[in-house]
């Protein structure tokens, strides 16, 4: 015997595609926030216990979920954040961009959606500051929000260290300030008790106590820094890119952008705005780095660290790694005396020996 069950529907209910009457959607349930932060002057409330536990870590500074990868040392307040961080070690990026012509992938879906809005949405989403006489534009809403604290003079990011009442307008400045309280522990050796008060103090300790020579696998030359080894490996390449001076009738080429920029400012623009303020010196330089390097010659503690300038070598010898033998004969001094840097005058560009252009060199 079939049983017919009647279902009540309101007069305004719409009929579903199958011919049945649809029910009216019930209002969303009321969420009661029963988990309250117990720290004084904190009114944070949550509807789930794990959210409260993650929030309490901000007050206590605990990180109950540490990263287990060797040499990382980071910790997180939730297991979700730890799993997301582990993808930076494994290289996994499960969320690909929804645009067909874009091959980028991201660790989280939210980052993928933000990328899609900024790069592929038409028109591009831009956040404009609405304060008078400002009108600055930002690609991210958080950047706009932090920027507007300048107009409102707000400092919502307060230091949580006991006895410190400083506050800042951006989280990055607060994070940099909190390093003063936490210090900079040694990351080179877990058994090293050193804790630096400043970042420069920590770098000095790491260079003095834990420096390890890095060896080039081609020529066995040793270096103190990875960046120096990276620059050195360029001489072992079959071809090497150089920067050619864009000025007319100038064939000078340089292996680094710094050299090209210094050449243009010194010899073409005649700009030497950085002056040595040491007594009885007055030398001028086109680059700030050149002035800082020159200042070591006046410091008795650092003067011994200043290396003499190496002899000028051709580009071909630098690329091949071949060092020509030193000639026993002394060079004959030309009748023309070179112009010193302190005179402020610039020598004629045509007097400089031009280096060969790389496009014609192929070292094998």
Task: Note the main attributes of this structure.
364 residues; alpha+beta; two-stranded antiparallel ribbon; two-stranded antiparallel sheet; disordered N terminus
Structural summary, described in words:
The protein is extended. The chain has 364 residues and is an alpha+beta fold. A hairpin with a 6-residue loop joins strand 13 (214-215) and strand 14 (222-223). The longest helix is centred in the first third of the chain and has 12 residues, at 49-60. It has helices at 49-60, 79-90, 109-119, 141-152, 171-182, 199-209, 226-232, 257-268, 288-295, 315-320; strands spanning 35-36, 45-46, 65-66, 75-76, 95-96, 105-106, 127-128, 137-138, 157-158, 167-168, 184-185, 195-196, 214-215, 222-223, 243-244, 253-254, 274-275, 284-285. The N and C termini lie far apart (94 Å).
